[in-house]
Specification:
The protein is mainly β. It folds into two domains: about 90 residues, SH3 type barrels (Roll), CATH 2.30.30; about 70 residues, SH3 type barrels (Roll), CATH 2.30.30. Helix content is about 5%, strand content about 45%. The protein contains two helices and 16 strands. A five-stranded antiparallel sheet has the order 8-7-6-1-9. A five-stranded antiparallel sheet has the order 15-14-13-10-16. Strands 2-3 form a two-stranded antiparallel sheet.
């Protein structure tokens, strides 16, 4: 199941000790700083390679909300959420920053309507479409829409998240998120 997009992504580094990943933990809470529910072991968090690419020493967590230094994250494939305070352990980036300039692709198994490219958001008739495996460069995100470069001579709009707020795009396989 495609995850909800939320507001951005927290990239946590996986530290290593003699080649083995350290079992660093983050405390999870029901509300920021209130009622601790346990710990998240960073190395056990799903990496979602089908969305974020592979080959990264970073673990992605989709961020649903932010309050001061606290982030509400989705920490497993079942969509469970918790508040964490990552401190300096990770880098939060809103989607607009995370995807800008990255090589992207559509996630697998989408409805045909999401592969369509438009001159403007919600402009009615699509100009053309991308294939499920076609790579494009993400230029700009605006609301649920993204400006993409699907070939060197054209900039078009496509949806990057659906009407329910779920992701439609991901990084190109083997791609590594910047910073």
């Amino acid at each position: 199941m495609r995850p909800y997009a939320g507001i951005g992504v927290l990239m946590l580094p996986v530290s290593s000790d003699s080649g083995d990943a350290a079992y660093e933990e983050l405390q999870r809470y029901d509300e920021p700083g209130i009622y601790r529910r346990g710990a998240l072991e960073i190395v056990r968090i799903p990496r979602h390679e089908w969305i974020f690419g592979s080959g990264s020493a970073m673990v992605p967590l989709v961020v649903m909300a932010k309050k001061a230094g606290w982030l509400k994250v989705v920490y497993d494939d079942a969509g469970r959420e918790a508040w964490i305070n990552p401190g300096r352990r990770g880098t939060f980036q809103p989607w607009e920053v995370f995807f800008k300039g990255q090589a992207g692709r559509m996630l697998p198994g989408l409805q045909k309507k999401y592969y369509q490219l438009f001159r403007q958001p919600d402009s009615g008739q699509p100009l053309t479409s991308v294939t499920p495996r076609q790579v494009f460069k993400m230029i700009l995100l605006d609301g649920d829409w993204a400006v993409v470069m699907s070939d060197p001579n054209s900039l078009n709009w496509m949806r990057w998240r659906d009407e329910d707020g779920r992701l439609l795009i991901g990084l190109e396989r083997g791609g590594t998120p910047t910073k």
